Amino acid sequence: MPTITFEPELLHRIEQAAQENQQSVADTLVEAVQQYLWELDRKKISRESALYRQKYPELKSQYLGKYIAMRDGMVVDHAADFQSLYARVRERFPNSPVLMTRVEEESDKPIVRHGFRFEANGE
Questions:
Q1: Strand order in the sheet with 67-71
Q2: Helix or strand holding residue 119 (H, E)
Q3: Residue 2 belongs to some domain of the structure
Q4: In contact, 26 and 73? CB cutoff 8 Å
Q5: Which residues constitute the domain of residue 101?
């Protein structure tokens, strides 16, 4: 396991946070890294959502009524039902944020986030 060195001031803040939350320094660091990675994933999904909106006319002509999975602005999979799409995407990209949504008739229909899964509102 690699050794991580912190500047004394940062280490003091980490120890203080651990003490205030009644947890170990290790648990505090794990929680902080998990939160950081979650935030990175959230930003990635936000960018994917913007790309979805930009590409909506093309997506609608190809995938209307189907569920799609977008990663890095590209459709990486699609299916008629969400469950089979989700299973394939999680197998292929187990730890990566991937936008999964149904292509609706209207592009301005709100997208609701469920964890890092996005679906059209009401689905």
A1: 74-79, 67-71, 99-102
A2: strand 117-120
A3: no
A4: no
A5: 8-120
Residue type, 31: E
Among residues 61, 96, 103, 62, which one has the least CA distance to residue 82?
103
pTM above 0.85, yes or no: no
Are 121 and 65 contacting, i.e. CB atoms less than 8 angstroms apart? no
- Cα separation, 69 vs 45, whole angstroms: 11
> Domain count of the chain?
1
Which single residue is written with the structure tokens 């940062």? 10
pLDDT, tens digit, 9 for 90 and up, residues 27-41? 999 999 999 999 999
Compute φ and ψ for 120, nearest 5 degrees: -65, 145
Length of the chain: 123
